[in-house]
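Predict both folds.
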Amino acid sequence: MTIALPADSGAAPVGSTARLSPHLATSNFFEYRLSSPQGLSTGVPIFFSSAAPIAEKEPNNDPAQSQVVTIPSEVVGQFFPAADADWFAFEGKKGQDLFLEIRSHRLGRDTDPTMVIQKVKKNEKGEEVVTLVAEVDDSADRQQKIGGAYDISTDDPSYRLKVDEDATYRVLVRDN
C-alpha cells in the first residue's frame, strides 16, 4: 500500500488514537487510519525519514568491510542476528558539525544500542592510523521528563561530531 505523507507531518494529531510511549515524543511520525466499509481503523504511527534511507548491507561486520555512506544520510537496518556488529564509514571534512544518532529504542524496539566512532588517516607509509573519537552508550537525556511526569529518556545514543580535520570516519553500531 502506498501512503502519502501529510503536508504537516511530524507529530501525532490532536485526538490521536495511536498508543505511544512518552519516549517517542521527539520522533517524526504521523497517525494513519485505514478507511474501510466498516469505518476507520485504529490509528497506527507511521514513522518517516527526512532523507532517502540507505539500507544496511552485509558484510559490514568488521572495520575493513565498513559500508561507505555519504553524509548527510539515514541508514536503516536491524540488530540481527544476536551480537551483530555493523560498521559504516564516511568522509568528514574539516569544519563540519555532524550529529550521529541511533533510533531504535525510540521506535518501540527492545534494544540498547551503542556506537563507537573512529577517525582513520593514512601515515606517510600508507598505513592506517586509527584514533578513537568516542564510545557512546545511552543518550544524555536519561533523566529527561516532560512536565515532571512523562519519562522521555531513551537508550538510543547520540553524538555531536565536530570534524577537526579531513579524514575517513568509521562508526560501529551494535546492540548491547
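Second protein follows, with its predicted C-alpha cells after the sequence.
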Amino acid sequence: SDLVFSFVEKLAKELKKTHPEVVLWVPAYDYYSRPPEKIKRLPDNVGITLCLFPTWIQTSHPETQKELNELTERWFELVGRNPERLVVWDYFFYPNCFFTAPTEIPHLLQKNINFLRGRAIGMMNNGFSPRAPQNPQLYLTYRIVWLYQQLLWNPDFDVEKARTQWCRDLFGPAAATMEKFYALLEERWE
C-alpha cells in the first residue's frame, strides 16, 4: 500500500498543477486494500474505491466486521473525512458460485450500509456474475441484490416487509411457506 499510494500521492500533486479540476480515482484493492502507513492524508484530488472482499459473508463474523469497519474508518481519514471521496466496492456475488442455497443476510447488509452512511458516497456491487450461465447458483443472489439496491436507495428500508412482499409477488399461493423458508435462511446465515 505504501508503494502504490506514494505513487498516487505524487501523481495527484502533479495532476493538480495542470488539471486542478480532475479527481484521480484509485482502487484500494487486493494486496493494497490496507491503508498506507507512511501517508497521513491523501491529496484532496484523490478518491478511493475501497474493495472489501467479500463484505457480505464477513459481516456475520463480529471480529471481521470490526476489522472491516476499522479499515473503512482509516480510509475515511486518509480522504480527509470527505464521503464524496470514498466509494465501497463490494464483491457481492462471490462466493455464491460455490453454494447451493441463497445467502440471505438482509439485517447484516442493512447494518453495514448504515455504517457507511456519511463515510462513503455510495457502494458498488457486482451482484450478478457474467459467469451465471455456467454457475446457476449465482442466480440465488437475485433477492439479496434486490434488497441491496433498496437499502442503497433507503438505508431504513423495512427488510421484514420486503421479505413478505418478495414472497407474495414471486410465489403466490406458496408465499407463506416460502416466507418461512427465507426467514429460516436469514436466521441461519446471520
